[in-house]
Design a protein that fits this description.
Strand order of the largest sheet: 5-6-7
Radius of gyration: 32 Å
CATH architecture of the largest domain: 2-Layer Sandwich
Number of helices: 5
Helix content: 25-40%
Number of strands: 9
CATH class of the largest domain: Alpha Beta
Structural class: alpha+beta
Length: about 210
C-alpha cells in the first residue's frame, strides 16, 4: 500500500469562523474616522455617531448634537436629515445622544408636524389649555375636552354656551368682560398669578397666594 497525500484545509474549521468575524467587526469599530463636519480625526469609538443602521456617514457625537440643536431650536425642524451631502436618510430621536431636555423638544416638534393637517384648538377652560384635534372631520361644535372633561364649543373655541349661538355668545361675553373689567378697577381687585382668579384685598400685605 502506498502513502496517501492529504491536502491541507483551505479554510478554518467552522467553529473558528464566528470568532474571526467578531474580531474583524471589533477592528472596524475601533478604526480611526474623520468627522465630516469638524474634519477632526478620532479613534474613540464612543465618539462616533451611529444612525441606527440607516446610513454610515462618519460624524462625531459632539458635532451631531450641535447640528440637531440648531435644527430644533432655530429651524423648528423635527424630521432632521443626515448632514452628509446628498443623503436623504433621517435621524432617529435618541435620548441617549441628545439628553432628556433636547429629546423632549425633538418629540414635541415631531408631534407639532404630525398635527399640521388637522383642524385643532386649545381647551378654553382655565388651567387646561390642552391641544384638541378634530380627527373625524366635519363641523364639530359641542366637544368634551379629553384632559379636563369639561364641555366647550369647538367652532368658536369658547366655553360651551348651551341654548345660545356662537355669535350671540361672543357678544354677551364681550359685554360681561367689559363690565367685569370696570368692576375690577373700581374694587381694586388683584389676580392670583397662578390660577388667575380675582381676589379682594381686605387687610394685610399685597402678596397674593393661591389656596
Amino acid at each position: 500500500m502506498g502513502n496517501t497525500l492529504q491536502t491541507p484545509p483551505q479554510s478554518l474549521p467552522p467553529q473558528q469562523q464566528p470568532q474571526q468575524q467578531q474580531e474583524i467587526a471589533g477592528d472596524e469599530e475601533n478604526q480611526e474616522f474623520t468627522c465630516e463636519i469638524c474634519i477632526e480625526p478620532t479613534s474613540n469609538a464612543d465618539k462616533k455617531f451611529t444612525n441606527t443602521n440607516r446610513c454610515s456617514h462618519p460624524f462625531c457625537t459632539d458635532c451631531m448634537i450641535k447640528y440637531i440643536r440648531v435644527k430644533l431650536e432655530d429651524d423648528n425642524v423635527g424630521h432632521i436629515k443626515c448632514p452628509a451631502f446628498n443623503c436623504d436618510h433621517t435621524l432617529d430621536p435618541l435620548a441617549s445622544l441628545v439628553g432628556p431636555s433636547l429629546f423632549v423638544r425633538w418629540c414635541d416638534v415631531l408631534c407639532e408636524a404630525a398635527v399640521v393637517g388637522f383642524d385643532k384648538c386649545y381647551c378654553p377652560h382655565r388651567n387646561c389649555n390642552a391641544l384638541i384635534l378634530n380627527e373625524c372631520g366635519g363641523n364639530v361644535k359641542k366637544s368634551n375636552c379629553p384632559n379636563c372633561r369639561r364641555w366647550f364649543c369647538f367652532k368658536c373655541k369658547r366655553i360651551w354656551h348651551a341654548g345660545v349661538g356662537c355669535e350671540e355668545s361672543a357678544v354677551l361675553r364681550d359685554r360681561n368682560d367689559l363690565a367685569f373689567g370696570m368692576l375690577v378697577e373700581q374694587k381694586n381687585w388683584m389676580s392670583c398669578p397662578r390660577c388667575r382668579h380675582f381676589v379682594e384685598l381686605l387687610e394685610g400685605c399685597k402678596i397674593v397666594k393661591c389656596r
